[in-house]
Automatic annotation (TrEMBL):
The lineage of its organism: Bacteria, Bacillati, Actinomycetota, Actinomycetes, Motilibacterales. This is LacI family transcriptional regulator. Coiled coil: none annotated. InterPro entries: HTH_LacI, LacI/GalR-like_sensor, Lambda_DNA-bd_dom_sf, Peripla_BP_I. Residues 1-53 form the HTH lacI-type domain. The keyword DNA-binding applies. Keywords: DNA-binding, Transcription, Transcription regulation. PANTHER family: HTH-TYPE TRANSCRIPTIONAL REGULATOR GALS, LACI-RELATED TRANSCRIPTIONAL REPRESSOR. It holds the Pfam family LacI. GO terms for molecular function: DNA-binding transcription factor activity; transcription cis-regulatory region binding. Residues 316-339 are annotated as: Disordered. The keyword Oxidoreductase does not apply.
Amino acid sequence: MRDVAREAGVALRTVSRVVNGESNVNAEMAGRVHSTIARLGYRPDERARQLRRGSSQTIGAALRGTGGMWEHTAEHTARAAGFMTLAASTEDDPALYAQVIESLCQRRVDGLMVEPIGAATPYLVAEVEAGLPVVAVDRPLEDVPADSVVSDNAGGIRAAVEHLLARGHREIAYIGDSERIYTGRLRAEAFRSCLQEAGLAVEDASVTTGEAGPEMVADALDRMRRCSAPPTALVTGNNVISWQVLRQLGPAIGELAVFCFDSLENAELLAHPVSTVNQDLEGLGRTAVDLLLARLAEPERERQHIILPVSLSIRASSEVPPPPRARRRRAHKAQAPSS
């Protein structure tokens, strides 16, 4: 910094003010300092700047996976506000989840975005009590008093089921994520409530939840086929399950009305275009950073839980009408194995 001051012909304090972004510097002097910095290749000591500022200008992010739309938007929103994002994947593993959060806190990030996986987080309570702003994204932190932003999970499922009911479907099935997960629980509960409000029975075979994977989906589809009145419509709880359903049903997907929660990439280009409930992923990322910045500016502000609306993309898959009851029962009887 002394070299910069000497070469630019200004006081050392002036260089310090320019480097730290202070506004009370003559424009002509600031220009000389900046050009000298560029010519000499000077780089400020970031650790010293953090000590003086009391801020690292970084936001930590503990994510279930990296590279998604909300994470991308959050990074750009943070950058526009002068913050860099330090992100790591927890891979839905409780031990790694704890390790990632503890590691980010040790790096003294100014705030933390967390995508909870359902595990308890007692180590995070102390950080929040010490003043670390934390925002939960996609699902709340149930054991930590933190701001949160989520999608309207129940509203999305309700809209999909009501659409299918309006098309005449009465035997509707649901395949969703484990109900130990906040989103999985809310979506399954909303599905059951919709059927009950419509005066329809909720049979065991009509609702399947569990760890998403090929085996779980195969078992769910098998139980659907064995029902006395096989479902004529299906709602899926997330895009992982939706893709498994599409793969396993193959061409038979056209015989069943299907509505998927979560956008599916190129869903409109499939041979049988799929209707989807779409989350506002950009809104999730943008709101998460906004909540963090607001908490940094006003630490004592009231906690906020923001629910973002979802939207529907209606395509051919949800427009398949239910077959006449008599024909459906005859078809099922013909498929039943002989004794």
